[in-house]
Amino acid sequence: MAWIYLLIASVFEVIFALGTNATEGFTKLGPSLLTAVAAGFGIFFLSLALKTLDVGVGYAIWTGIGSVGTVLLGTVIFDESLNLGKVVCFVAILGGIIGLKLVDRSSAEAEATIPAATATVPEPVR
Prior knowledge:
Layout: H1 2-22, H2 29-49, H3 55-77, H4 84-113
Helix pairs in contact: 1-2, 1-3, 3-4
């Protein structure tokens, strides 16, 4: 469920980023309210995801999906430029996101199959 929350949070992150552009410096009330609400929901769903996911993994994926989604939709909505350099960099970000998800899944599976070590703590030297 954490991954679903993270995906929802990422969608709100994209809405927040695109909305910020539409506020024209927070001088337009409608886009400003939409942007504030999207930011709040994004952080709310991120916090739900981080109950289970490591904060570093969750935050990296949230910002990565937000960045890629914002660039892709920014090219469509705001007619922003997209060149080969940007595409290569965003493919690298997507690769990192996929890698983090795979590593997170494999480490969780490894923890489930490896019994916890029973360590003894040595007595302090007096």
